[in-house]
Amino acid sequence: MAAQAPRNQPQDAQNLYDSRASNYDNSWHHRFARHMVELAELRPGEHVLDLACGTGLVTYPASTAVGPTGNVVGIDISSGMLARAKAKRAAHESRNVAFYQHSITDLPALPELEGMVFDVIICASALVLLDDPSEALRLWTTYLKFGGRLITHSPHPASQISLIIFGRVGQVLGRPVPFYRVPFQTPEDLRVMVEEAGLSSVEVVLMSQKNIAGTDALEAYRGDPKHLRIENTYSIADAD
After folding, report:
1. CA dihedral sign, ordered 190, 119, 41, 38
2. Whole-number pLDDT of residue 150
3. Which of 15, 66, 144, 152 has the lowest tally of Cβ within 10 angstroms?
4. If DSSP codes are grouped into helix, strand and coil, which group holds residue 12?
5. Helices (DSSP H) in 46-175: which residue ranges?
6. Which residues pair with 71 in a beta bridge?
7. CB 45 within 8 A of CB 65
């Protein structure tokens, strides 16, 4: 079997989220983003860097929290997601927000960030997608003021069993699944990685969230256009 060519993670991310941009907001992401902003405990006048900002679900609530004396810079690789984010600017009346299309793993190459440091850095959902989360964290801390705060997220392995299996089957078949990754086996793994990036006073918060509601999950998926349709279910016995 021929060796698999290395994947281009930023390009993979751009392709995926460009395709999801039109309906990304029609899901649970609003609730999750609000919770991330609450965890940040933003104060008026603070300067915030929103990494993998997507459609601005964190960016705009953060801009409201820091007020006109603060500002928020949102960075995302997806032009489609950023177009959605920028389209919301008028509705939010946010003059303290700037968006840039760029990879969050190569911030030094973005000239607009030169010399900038932030009170708070938020990366709501993207850490798990990166090829080298540890290196990314070390890079991000260089843009953090002394005493600043970094808020990020990673799914707990217990909530990702099916995705872990999917990813491992892809490896066996030689068809890698680039976005089904669980780099941290325990919350302690995440804590250690953050501390090794040079941060202290690390707090790991376990979150519980339901992505669908109702007594019949299958019907919920069938009737919800935001999700891929499940037309039937099969057991191992059906494969015999």
Report:
1. negative
2. 93
3. 15
4. helix
5. 59-66, 79-87, 89-92, 133-141, 161-172
6. 47
7. no
Cα angle 57, 9, 183 (rounded to 5 degrees) comes to 80
Helix or strand run (H / E) with residue 217:
helix 217-223
Per the CB < 8 A criterion, the answer to whether 156 and 208 are in contact is: no
Q: Is 160 exposed, middle or buried (0-12, 13-18, 19+ CB in 10 A)?
A: middle
Candidates 185, 139, 182; CA nearest to 163 is 182
pLDDT for the residue 198: 87
Class of domain 9-154+181-213: alpha beta
Please tell me the distance from the alpha carbon of residue 148 to that of residue 198, in angstroms, as a whole number.
Answer: 12
The two structure tokens encoding residue 118: 């932030």
| pLDDT tens string 207-226 | 655 554 444 454 544 444 44
C-beta neighbour count of 202 within 10 angstroms: 13
pLDDT digits (tens, 9 = 90+) for 9-67: 667 777 767 667 677 677 667 788 888 999 999 999 999 999 999 999 999 999 999 99
Distance CA 32, CA 9 (A): 24
**For residue 185, which phi and psi values (nearest 5 degrees)?**
-80, -25
Query: Domain segments of the chain: what residues?
Result: 9-154+181-213
Tokens standing for residue 15: 């392709």
109: tokens are: 């190459």
Measured CA to CA, the distance from residue 230 to residue 222 in angstroms comes to 6
| pTM higher than the cut 0.85 | no
Q: Is residue 160 very low, low, confident or very high in pLDDT (cuts 50, 70, 90)?
A: low
Amino acid at residue number 20? R
